[in-house]
Amino acid sequence: MKDIIINNEIQDLIQELDVPDSKYEQATKRYNSIANYIKNSELNSNRPDIYLQGSFKLGTAVRPLTDDGGYDIDIVCNFTALRRENQSQFSLKYDLGEVVKSYAKAQSMSNDPEESKRCWTLKYVDESNFHIDILPSVPLNEKDDGFIAITDKTHDAYFEIISNWETSNPKGYATWFRDISRFSIYQTEVAKRFHASIEKVPEYKVRTPLQRIVQLLKRHAEVCFEEDFEHKPSSIIITTLAAKQYQSASTSHSDFMDIINYIIEHLKDSIEFRDGKPCVYNPVNKAEVLSNKWDKDSSYFEAFEKWLEQLKLDFNVGNNNLSYLDKINCIRKSLFKKIGDQFPVVNVNSISHHQNSKWRELLIKDVSIKASYLHKGFRWKDIKSGTILNKHGSLKFEVQASGLQDYDIWWQVTNTGREAELANSLRGDFYGSELVEGRRVRKESTLYTGRHYVEAYLVKNGVCYGKSNPFEIIITDKFSIDFAR
Fold first, then answer.
1. Keywords assigned by UniProt (predicted)?
2. Are β-strands 471-476 and 387-390 bridged in parallel, bridged antiparallel, or unpaired?
3. Mean pLDDT of all residues in 241-255
């Protein structure tokens, strides 16, 4: 496996997503606090083994999307002295719940613990907004192999003593993920940098390229589904599919962006099928299906496919016509909520086939573009720059400026992406207007997937007196993408 190069621009971007060390330290204190309380309670005779799982354990947690967002910490409380034949799922969860409620009261917490399908949740009301999910379980087998049987209050026999419990293996999954990411190698490098033993280096100080990739993909999904969080692809599915592709990607590539592009392009390759339906299994526990929602409602898998198409567009997978910095800018726009002019437009001048202006410039006029889109015979719809559109639609562009009657209007159209390149239609040159209902407009079609740019120029006597910012059109060919941006 090659050494992986992460350029400064992408490194800076990823660090903006990182959970601050202070939050990790605070999370550790709170995790230890509830763990010690349970171990010193009447449940101590059941020999509770309490450990982290989820993103804080894997090192893939990201900052909340908004200032008032929270951090989710997932822990397992495995009662190693108990077995499924000792009690029902209900009684196990009830007993743990009583202790968790007692802890909340002893800590004078504002909120009572909440019961979900599998866990008890502690919610902290402070600047960190921590949520700690505590999963009750018992060992699945007599030997200590990491497999656990977990409670599920939607189970038909939840109140009965049965052996048919849901199963999981959080310890095994964490080991599997860390082995693929070469965590121990990076941990050793960090220890050397701090002149410390491995044991003294907090795990949250270690960040492997695979952890970074998962952070980027998770944040992208959060932004895409901010208005429809229910259909957001789950973190465990994203993490599993990315990890399965990482080994091949990092063997054949050494540049971080090449690796993440490979993973995105092949993300679906690791999806298996069960009874003809797409499925993602836990790689260390084939009895555990991570994509249960896909079985129950096809809209969840459709949302996953929709997100993946958006991901390819935002990361410009297969688009070799944009500069590296412009690709980073596109990624940045997809990971953060836009505020005003926080994100600059793509520098179209860096696109090799984008021609220089053929007029002398005296830019004294404010010029902008109004665009509308027509697809499958529906009414024309006004669109904004950066709107995602389907293929095989019609576009109409109109200049917005004062005194238009005094100027000629010219249009520059620049395509990017694999399809336009293969069709020998990258363009980048200049075109005149056509008269439609007394207005001079430019009409185009959405033929090629990818990012494309339209600019308008006001010209008189060989001088350009005003030109617009590039109007960005993003085209996909699979389905309408209407994520909130």
1. Antiviral defense, Transferase
2. parallel
3. 93
